[in-house]
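User: Before I run my own analysis I want an independent prediction to cross-check against. Here's the chain; please return only the structure tokens and, at the end, one sentence I can use as a sanity check.
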Amino acid sequence: MGLRLSLKPYERLIINGAAIRNGDRPVSFLIENQCKFLRESEIMHESDADTDCKKLCVTLQVMYLVDEPATTIELFLAQARELIAVERSFAPYLLKIQLEIEAAQYYKAIKQGRELIAYERSLLDRPTAKTNAA
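Assistant: Structure tokens:
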């Protein structure tokens, strides 16, 4: 039993590191073996990584897609240390990500990374809300 994916026109997909773009019509196909893939809606491009937490999530994507993640794990740990030095309240989110990485659950680590980005966004939005209220 495989996994059926449906792509919208011009939607992108990464399968085992190969970038694929659909044509001008919707398409559906079946993945019959184990592989690593990210749909376009899950992909964060480096050019969109305009905060430290988003950069960390790009690292998590690379970690998920590469065959040997050891170097990427080292990069994650360095980024995590820098984030905690800047904002200690990131620590619980980073711990959840690290636990998924230790369990080799890299896709779940990406999901946890999205929660970190949402938290970061809430922190960045707070000063704006205070300024607007004044």
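Sanity check: The chain has a mean pLDDT of 91.
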